[in-house]
Amino acid sequence: MANSPALVNGWLALSDTLSEGVIPAPVRERLAIATAQYNNCEYCLSAHIYIGAHVAKVDAEALERARDAESSDPHTAALIALSGAISHSRGSIDETQLKAARARVTDTEMAEVVGNPALNILTNYFNLLADTDNEWAAVTPRTHN
């Protein structure tokens, strides 16, 4: 990313701005984990498992469930499900999924659920393309079923 100051500045600006949003850091980390798992990005999966545990203070069971796009907390589960539906359908979720999300998620959260995975997809794809060396404790993405 350092080869493009525009990309670094854009990534930093979006990251900083979303960190001030309504979705708290522990949930943002779980969104990042679910996205990295889906995109098979070992670097980002490893980084967000570590950050989730040590910075956002998310317990190991919740981090593991995030890899499966799940949560024991119904609100967090709704956010993760919405994020997954958006990512997997490239933004074209069906009416049933949208109604389910609107029953549990605010419009502000919905907007940020689009923004957070967009940020994560950017870093997932960048690290996959660049074959970034993983300096984190390696967490290997599971094979998709």
UniProtKB/TrEMBL annotation:
Q: Which Pfam families does the entry link to?
A: CMD
Ranges for domain Carboxymuconolactone decarboxylase-like come to 5-63
Gene3D superfamilies attached to this UniProt entry: AhpD-like (1.20.1290.10)
Q: Which residues cross the membrane?
A: none
How is this protein named in the record? Carboxymuconolactone decarboxylase family protein
Q: Which species?
A: Streptomyces rugosispiralis
